[in-house]
Amino acid sequence: MGRGKVELKRIENPTSRQVTFSKRRNGLLKKAFELSILCDAEVALLIFSSSGKAYQFSSHDMDRTIAKYRREVGLPDSNNPRFRTMEFWRSEIEELKRSINTLEARLRHLSGEDTLALGMRELKQLERQLKIGAERVRSRKRRIISDHATFLKRRHKQLQEENTRLQKRLNELQDSNISSRIVGENTCSMFQQRNILQDNNLSN
Question: Helix 81-110 crosses helix 120-203 at what angle (to 10 degrees)?
Answer without folding.
Answer: 70
